[in-house]
Specification:
The complex is a heterodimer of chains A (114) and B (113). Chain A is mainly β and 114 residues long. In chain A, 0% of the residues lie in helices and 56% in strands. Chain B is an all-beta fold. In chain B, 0% of the residues lie in helices and 50% in strands. Chain B is built from no helices and twelve strands. In chain B, the strands form three sheets. In chain B, strands 2, 5, 6, 10, 11 and 12 form a six-stranded mixed β-sheet that branches. Chain B has a four-stranded antiparallel β-sheet with strand order 3-9-8-7, with no helix packed on it. In chain B, a hairpin with a 2-residue loop joins β7 and β8. Classes of the chains: A mainly beta (114), B mainly beta (113). At the A-B interface, β5, β9 and β10 of A face β6 and β10 of B.
């Protein structure tokens, strides 16, 4: 595997379900990000993790719960979602401290909440 | 705070036409500037970048020049192809030191044969 991978690629869940999205980066980076991409707001930053510590939470509802067990893996735990949470969820990684701000993105998980 | 404004889309062109997608930014410091591209069904890929004023980023026939005096980073290509159909995002690095990017709203480009 190379780059940033995300699983599953597609997910359909009911409003009462609990599911998790997984992201893994194979680039040796030390920062990881979750973004939400929808028609209404094209690219919203949700969470930032630097060295496994959460450094940013952009007023994301508590029904989204991130977890970063190590610098290579990032999860987004989902529970009691709403239909408006249907979107493409993108994971990204970067290397903090080098002055290079480039982020590398995964292919995304297309989430549909029914 | 920092912000990025892109030209409204969608943009539809014929193959071999010239392309310009406008991008202007507001930042208090000296950000790096990026263009990302998103092909259908995929995540974002870095297309090109520039790290300081007057730098020109280029890739796959696309170019953009970091213009500090006009706070702009317009994306240009002399002759577009059908395969260039995608959504293009302009972005800047946060000028307050936070390790994050600020994205524009994206411009959908469709190239007809």
């Amino acid at each position: 595997e190379t780059g940033v991978t995300q699983t599953p690629r597609h997910l359909v869940m009911g409003m009462t379900n609990k599911k998790s999205l997984k992201c893994e980066q194979h680039l040796g980076h030390n920062a990881m990000y979750w973004y939400k991409q929808s028609a209404k707001k094209p690219l919203e930053l949700m969470f930032v993790y630097n060295f496994k510590e959460q450094t940013e939470n952009n007023s994301v509802p508590s029904r989204f719960s991130p977890e970063c067990p190590n610098s290579s893996h990032l999860f987004l735990h989902l529970h009691t979602l709403q239909p408006e949470d249907s979107a493409l969820y993108l994971c990204a990684s970067s290397q903090v401290g080098t002055g290079d701000y480039e982020q590398y993105f995964g292919p995304g998980t297309r989430l549909t909440v029914t | 705070g920092d912000s990025v404004t892109q030209m409204e889309g969608p943009v539809t062109l014929s193959e071999e036409a010239c392309l310009t997608i406008n991008c202007t930014y507001t930042a208090t410091g000296y950000p790096s500037l990026f263009w990302y591209v998103q092909y259908p069904g995929e995540g974002l890929q870095l297309l090109l970048k520039a790290t300081k004023a007057d730098d020109k980023g280029s890739n796959k026939g696309f170019e953009a020049t970091y213009r500090k005096e006009t706070t702009s980073f317009h994306l240009e290509k002399g002759s577009v192809q059908v395969s260039d159909s995608a959504v293009y995002f302009c972005a800047l690095s946060d000028s307050q030191g936070a390790q994050k990017l600020v994205f524009g709203q994206g411009t959908r480009l469709t190239i007809n044969p």
